[in-house]
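Reading is simple: each integer encodes one residue's backbone shape. An example follows:

___
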Amino acid sequence: MKLLQSLAFTVLAYSFGYSQNCNCTENYNWIKNTFEENDAGYQYIIDKKGNNAYQTHNQLTANRIAKISDYNQCKIELENWLKFFRQDHFYIGLTDQAKSNQKKLENFQSVTANPIQLEKFKKEILSKKSYSIEGLWKAKNLLIAVKKINNEFIGSVVETKSKYKLNDVIFKISADMSSATYFTSNYKPESIQQVQYLGNNVLQIGNRFFEREFPVLAYENKIKEYFQIKSSEKPFGYKKDENTVYIYIPTFDDSKSEIDQLFKVLHSEIIKTENLIIDIRDNTGGQDQSYSSVISYLYTNPIQLVLPEFYSTELNNQPMKVIIENPSVDEQTKKMYKELYDKLERNRGKFINLSSNENVALIKREKMLDFPKNVGIIINENNLSSAEEFIFMAKQSRKVKLFGRKTGGALDVSNMVDLVSPTGDFEFSYCVSRSKRIPDNAVDDMGIHPDYYFDSSIPEVDWIDKVKEIMSFWK
């Protein structure tokens, strides 16, 4: 969830110098001090876990990082330090400078395969009595030839518009499809334990998906749909059958116009169809305003919205000052932010409700739509932040039931702002607001639980069919 929606990213830049090795201790001390002084969730966890536990955690972290000069290892330790407070809603990332230095430290060499003669390769594939994953596979900006060599399937580049070069090996998969090694764009090998061959046309290696290009084989509709869900960056939807409209929303980040347009196109179908399925698997959030138009299709009664309170510090208030001083911002907007900024500045070191003097707001609509009669929302562990806020609002409707797995739990402290460390090595994001829900109705690290839980015996590719099956009984 981004600060007051319109602020989006606010990166505070520092002057920094070049360093070959990572000074992890210096970066840790800066992140630790910044978090202690400014994060809205810091004191809540200290009060909950105790200062002694925190000091022990700090000492153990300091001991580990003292020996680290590797940027990636430092990143892991910084993330582990932050996980004392919560499992998500913070961010540690390497800057371009650090990535460049890390590449020099690691100096991974590309693994290359013998050049593939495409026409000869295609003839070899077609001559086989049965098909495996051998063939041509496409991913974003890549065409990959997969060929079995000894006891491995080797995937190498035959066409590229990316950082990979021709004949670079992208992955190696064991003959029994139980594990793989994936080579990242800087050629670092990653060990992968999840490999799936879905139908004839989708190959999943960890969280990466590839679609078959050749040979052309029968494509099951549910496999094609699943690939679209896992690869699409934009919302999509359609009338699935006479009783169901299906909509997938991959993100709420700067997607309001796309979501609004999709619902506008499908409006006539939605308001005469009994069931609506909204799939937000892997939607990690964005801006609350992105889903505002969706609420009308779910609405049955006033929706309670628990308001956040903002922690006022000089650093936390800086984004509003940037807007006020921006010559491209109109005067009315500047005036609004100036009033908010002044209110925060008058209350340094305190939590302030910027919206009103109430802890809870009610969202009301003039009427409830007759259709859809039932709304199923598909969720999983990758739903965070604004996606969870949407779920919180939606589940208050009598029409709505949740399906899937519990969400990730990153909502109680929110509204992230972004910084760059003084060394220029790390991007760092923390939160400036906390919800009045805590501690009585906390979400962080616990998530929001579905009404219908899908355990591991139900493959994710079958989730939509399972939701349809359950909803068919709601007559």
In short: DSSP finds 13 helices and 23 strands in the chain. Residues 118-187+194-220 form one domain. The longest helix spans residues 24-38. The chain has three domains: 13-93, 118-187+194-220, 225-310+349-471.
